[in-house]
Structure formats: C-alpha cells, structure tokens
# Entry
Amino acid sequence: MNALAPQTGLLPGFNDPVADSQKMFRAVLEAMSRPGTIVTAPVLPVAPQPLNPVAAALILALADYETPLWLDPAARQPAAIDYVRFHCGCPLVEAPDQAGFALVTDAKSMPPLSAFHLGSDEYPDRSTTVIVQVPHLDGGEAWRLKGPGIRDQAILAAGQLPSAFKAWVQDNHALFPRGVDLLFAAPGQLAGLPRSTLLEG
Amino acid sequence: MYVAVKGGEKAIDNAHALLAEDRRGDETIPELTLTQIDQQLGLAVDRVMTEGSVYDRELAALALKQAQGDAVEAIFLLRAYRTTLPRFGASQPVDTGAMAIRRRISAAFKDLPGGQVLGPTYDYTHRLLDFALAAEGAPRASVESAEAGLEPAPRVTDVLHHQGLIEPSGNGADLPGDLTRQPLNFPAGRDLRLQNLARGDEGFLLALAYSSQRGYGNTHPFAGEIRMGEVAVELVPEELGFAIDIGTITVTECQMINQFKGSKDIPPQFTRGYGLTFGQGERKAMAMALVDRSLRAEDLGEQATNPAQDQEFVLYHSDNVEASGFVQHLKLPHYVDFQSELEMIRRLRRENAEAAQ
Amino acid sequence: MQQQTKDTDARRQWMGVLAKSDESHVVQLWAGLSDLPAWEYLRRPEVGLVMVRGRMGGDGGPFNLGEMTVTRCSVRLQNGVVGHAWVAGRSARHAEMAAIADALMQDGDWRARVGEKLLAPLQSKLADDRGRAERKAAATRVDFFTMVRGED
# Structure
C-alpha cells in the first residue's frame, strides 16, 4: 500500500454511526424474532460494488474488529474490502468456518451452509451468521416456515438461491442448538431465518 | 434468595438526593474540579485507572469525585462506563525498554547501565505529617534539573539474560486471552493471570504478596528492577496497515528476580515475576510481580500448597468489583430466607425441648 | 518500494506527533492556518477503547494490560485525499484536526505550510517537554561513592 496515494474510492459509512447502527440492529432483531417477516430496512447507505445497500447496512451494524468476516469470492473486490476494513475494522478470513459473519453476494455459487462455523454444543452461539444477498424476497420458491416466533405459519420466497438451499436449511435445523442463522438482504428489505425455524413440505 | 420489594422508590430518591448533598459538603467551600483531582490526587487517579482497567485520567478523576474518593466505588463506575464504549482494536505490546524514564531503581545491582534514578518517590521521606501542606499557598520546592538527560537504561533482566543466568521470558500465544471477552478457565495461562492481576485489587495482592514473603510460599525475591515513566502506545489501524503512535501513557513496571534451584532438565537459575500497572503504581506492581511468580509454582514444578500459589483462589478473588458486589449483595432483602431459617430454629428448639421431657 | 517505506515512515511520524500533542496546543496553532480546503467526513469522530498490551517479563509473549480511550476520525479533502486520525482520549475536535492535518500533509500543495506552521512547533514542544522531564529525573540519579572498608 502506498501511504501517500489518495484513497479516492472509499465510500462513507452510516451518516450517524450510533443511531443508524441501533436502528439496523432493531430491524435485525425484528427479522430474527419473527422468521420470514419482511422487514423494511431503516437505513440505506451507499454501498460498494457488489453489495446492495441492505447488505452493507447489515455489515456496518453487526461486524466489528472482534467478528471475523468471510466475503464470498464475488464480494472480494477492492471497493468492498476497503469498505469493510475501514468502517468495521473486522479481520477478513479465508475459511468460512472461521467467520463470525459471512456475506454471500452471489448465492448461486455459495458453499453449503455446513461449510460455515456451526458452533459447538458448549458454545452454540459462536456459529456464523450468514448474510445472503438476494434480488427479492417474494418471487422465489415459497417455503412454509414453522417454529418459535411464528404464530401459525409464515411464507418466505427469497429469490435466486441454489437448488440445494432448502435441503441445507433443513439439515441446519436438524443440528439445533447448533447451526448457522441466516439473514436475507434484498433491495430495501430484509428477512431472517434462524436455525430454530423448520421448513415444511 | 431475595425477593422484589416495592414501596422504597420515594425513600431511594430522597437517599440519592441526600448523598448528592453529602458529596458536595459545605457549599461555602469551593467545589473540586476534575483537573484538581487529576493534578493533586494523581496516585488515586492512577489506581482507579489500573483497576478500573481504562487509561483516561479525566474519567478516573470524575469517578473519584462522584464516589467521594472511595477508590473501589470509583473503579466500579469506570468499569461500568467502559462497557458502553466499542472496542476498536488492540495495541502493539508497549515497549518498556524504550520508556522515557522518570524513576528506575534496582535492588539487585548497585552500578547498572543507566544508573539508579529515584524520581518522584515517597522512599526516604520520614512519614512525618507536613503541616506546611496544611497551609494553602505554601512555597513550592524548587526542582533541580541536570545539565544532561539520562543514558540509555537496558532492563536488568536483559543483562542477566545475556549471561544466561535467568530464564527467558517465554513466548505466549500471539493473541493473548482476554478475560473481559471469554470466561476464565483453569488452569489459566500466564497471559490471563497477568491481566487478572493487573485489574486486581491492590490491597488483596499486597496481602497475598506479603503472605508469600512470610512463609506462605517459597519465594526469595529481589526487586531486580522497578521503572516508571512514559511509553508510546502503537496501533495498526486496519485502514492503514502500518503502526502509528496513538498517544503516550505512564506505566510502572516491576521485575522480581527469584531464586530457582533447578530441576532435572533446567540448571539452577533465576526466574521472573512480572508486574505492570497504569500510572505510578509501584506498590501494586511489586505485589503483582510477587504473586505472578507465586502462581508460576506449578509450571516450575514446585509444590503449590499456599494461598498465593493457588490459581483459583487468587484469580477468582482478586477483582474488587466482583468481591464488593457479592459481599454487598447481603444488603438486599433476604426476608423470605430469613423467615424460613427463623422457623427452622424455632422448630428445632421445640423438638429438643420435647425430646428432653 | 524504498520511496514507499520512506513515505510511510514520514506519515507514521506526523500522525504520532499529532496524536501525542496536547489538544490545546493543536488548537492554538490551528488558528494560524488559513484558507483550508473544504473537506467532508468519511468517519465522524468516534470514541472507543483500545486494549493496551504489555509483554510478560517486558520482552516475552503479549498479555492484555487494560484499555485506554481513543477517538478516531477520517476525512476526505475536496481533491479526494483521505486523512485518518487515532488519538488517545475523548476529544472529537482533536481527532478531527489530526485527520485534516494528516490529509493536508499528504497533499503536495499543503505539505510545506502545514509542516512548518503545525507539525514543526508541535514536535519541538514534545521534544522540549520530554527533555525537561528527563533532566529533572536525571537530577535524582544516585552518584554512588564507595566508602573505604576493612583494615587497609
């Protein structure tokens, strides 16, 4: 790195880091406690390629220097790398199973959920939270969700996921209390799919 | 067991107002400023920073003011405040060898490179109350300045190490454990023990260190070196990728040198105990170094039968915020517990009386 | 490569001086800099903690000593040059001035002026303060003289 090179490409993060992080955290809490519910993102920062603004806001709100972050190969572009390094200060890891958070921007080529850190029986909380960027939350294959936080059933139809994704989610649920938690980041919206949620049918 | 009891709200509000009035005292007397506390009660500030585990003189001064000078309460306030701030990163380990020295003494070597520098010390004072200080505006002692500064002062332990007479310091993990993030497990590594001792209560460590000298431990220590002064704190920001100085802090370091008879594998040599505190904390640094060495008993194949050598005993009881919390929780209402105990005593007495008849 | 190392060293040096100087001194000298270019925040001043590490035995493996407060700030000048600051303590103003100065020092048009009017006086004050403290400490250095012992 040239210390004197003007770093003109770096984008600003949250306008108001404390308040915006809290709003976004609140939205994540809502999405995770009511799986399948589509939550409107309260803050939309300018995002570096190839992240969408919701994915960027989630990373800004959640990742910090104590949470190793895994970026999928498609996201490993200088603009995105500089952005997360600067704003979150988080270490970037090569192996998905070392990540506290993972960001998938190209879902079609993502590794199976079992490739991430699944937590241990003693510390199930240490598993990876996987953020999957999707083009929409209501045009894909409709899944019926059951479990904690869902009164009767919820429908989630996130778009453009790998064909094996549903089976991965089911296998992930079977590991409970271990397993990853999923956040879907669509344009302007997010939805959560924690490990406690069961997919029906 | 304690139960929630309602009805105290008004009393609590009034009690806090009364506390605030007591804290302020007579309003015809000028109020203390944080700068006054920082400048004139500096050693109290240093202790609160070390055990409160946050280097920030102004915050420590505020904590002392709010706690009416009660160090343990001030430490609690500072610990509580630190939980509200995000952690940005960790520094490069500070280099005490490059310290801008203000005090440096060795009880092991008289003539050592860099010399013995007494600095601002209470040693050699007569511990007579100085009534000149009671009169405000007492003339200030004039301080001498030498023509030249100090020569470089290598650590005494480095000198011994070059001659192979002292054990090496040993490399720990690249990433030291952090007991503010992960709960303590036993046996705890020396990195975690030192962190625990650095945060530990000075009085507790002092008493343990004293016990180890008086026979509850098998240490024959020399104060190899004590140094106090300023060190730069370096950090590598993610966005830069190289280290920069972010500020200067005052620290006190103590290197205790202890006899070691050797074992099958290791020749007789000196071993080390280490103490490091924020600010000027010589008594604490010395006590910490003695207890650090005591806690290494098992690692060095020595018998560990005394309190100062017992990891669980020392590390679980060193923290004055935890200790104060558990002792003081006894003030919480235990009305139900006590009623049942009262009931039991009465029943036992009744049964004894009946049996006697 | 060598030029890069030199540039990095120079930047490390001025960032350190800006961080270690007293805020009041930076403010005072800042007033002497006029017509500064426009800038915007990349990261507003933010207060947090850095864990200070020591080494076992002074030269062994690292351990966590305790935290310190620090304020960081990043700015971008109109021409795109980015400046960063990490400054001990909780002063937003200090961190902001240090970040702007870091950007200006990377800018060929400003470097000489900011170097002369800000960095040079800050650095000489730090050196003076350190020298003064050291000479006071040196006056408390013990000069041993050995007493004559024994029969001869």
User: Anything to note?
Assistant: The beta strands of chain B are 54-55, 87-90, 100-105, 221-235, 244-260, 269-278.
